[in-house]
Design goal:
mainly alpha, about 325 residues, ABC transporter involved in vitamin B12 uptake, BtuC
Length: about 325
């Protein structure tokens, strides 16, 4: 019970941290805005230039970062259950690589932004179908086979990305590299990510008990009546779609889904399979907060220039992970 109370306290603190990070993201920038003015702006009062900046520039970007961070963390938590590995990463299954290939191909040919988004999602979908189709084979679908197939597909996608970068003209190269390291500056509509995050939580939370049993072992889950085959397929498809949507909006940010769920488990002092009803929402809040904080720093540290947000997520997450890890008993 003390661990459960600790988990609820951490869940509340994470929700508070998410709201605080959103408020600071909206207030901080080249045009500083007081929190009292920010409240009036969000309530619909017309505040001139400040209101225009918040409503049309900062708010969509901040909400997109919150939703994309939540999607990446949620997909990471699901993949760690699927592969029974607390450090598993949805990107290792090639979904991010496929999205990168589709998006960079659109950039290379100078296609419009809408086509870029379509290309990223199509690339992620092709990678997802390719990995699952090859891993399934003759029915002997296993976590090991899925992981190995994903690594091979991701390696192939990485080779295609390197090939496209090597033939890209100089004036396009910086933009493509910036997107590969994560970029929320083009996130003008957070609605798809927010909708997918809400839909994903509605779908996955009723299966929290089954996920916890699956994380403890496939045989015990089968003995307790869990439909393991269907559950594994659902986890993989949902995690792949979550990753594809996040990459489509925010670019390639490969750290949030890897480390945030593990950090949450360490903070809550739970094992990999314990109470997914708490772990999944906590991971969503922590992932969204991390990405919003990283994006705020990325656009303010060396303003008016912007830094790649993916680099900052790693710089923020690694020390926190090492600190929590050092506090655990040997």
């Amino acid at each position: 019970m003390p661990n459960r109370r600790r988990a609820y306290v951490i869940l509340f603190l994470l929700a508070l941290a998410a709201l605080t990070s959103v408020a600071f993201s909206l207030a901080i920038g080249s045009l500083p805005i007081a929190f009292t003015d920010l409240w009036h702006i969000l309530c619909g009062d017309d505040a001139g230039l400040a209101g225009e900046v918040v409503r049309t520039l900062r708010l969509p970007r901040t909400l997109a970062g919150l939703a994309c961070g939540g999607l990446l963390a949620l997909s990471g938590a699901l993949m760690q259950v699927l592969l029974k590995n607390p450090l598993a990463d949805p990107y290792v299954l090639g979904v991010s690589g496929g999205a990168s290939v589709g998006a960079l191909a659109a950039m290379l040919f100078g296609l419009p932004l809408l086509v870029l988004h379509m290309g990223a999602f199509a690339g992620a979908l092709v990678a997802m179908l390719l990995v699952f189709g090859l891993a399934h084979g003759d029915g002997s679908w296993t976590q090991t086979r899925l992981l190995l197939t994903g690594v091979i597909v991701a390696s192939g996608a990485g080779a295609l990305v390197a090939l496209m970068l090597s033939v890209t003209p100089e004036h396009q190269l910086r933009g493509m590299l910036f997107w590969l390291m994560g970029d929320l500056s083009q996130a003008d509509s957070p609605a798809p990510a927010l909708l997918m995050l809400a839909l994903g939580m509605i779908i996955i939370l009723p299966f929290s008990r089954d996920l916890g049993l699956l994380a403890r072992g496939e045989l015990s889950a089968l003995a307790l009546g869990v439909p393991v085959a269907r559950l594994r397929l659902m986890i993989y498809v949902l995690a792949s779609i979550f990753t594809a949507v996040a990459v489509n909006i925010a670019g390639s940010i490969g750290f949030v889904g890897l480390i945030v769920p593990h950090l949450v488990r360490l903070a809550m002092r739970t094992t990999a399979g314990n109470d997914q009803r708490l772990l999944l929402p906590a991971s969503v809040l922590a992932g969204g907060t991390l990405l919003v904080v990283a994006d705020t720093l990325a656009r303010t540290i060396v303003a008016p220039q912007q830094l790649p947000v993916g680099v900052l997520t790693a710089l923020l997450g690694v020390p926190a992970f090492l600190y929590l890890l050092s506090r655990q008993p040997k």
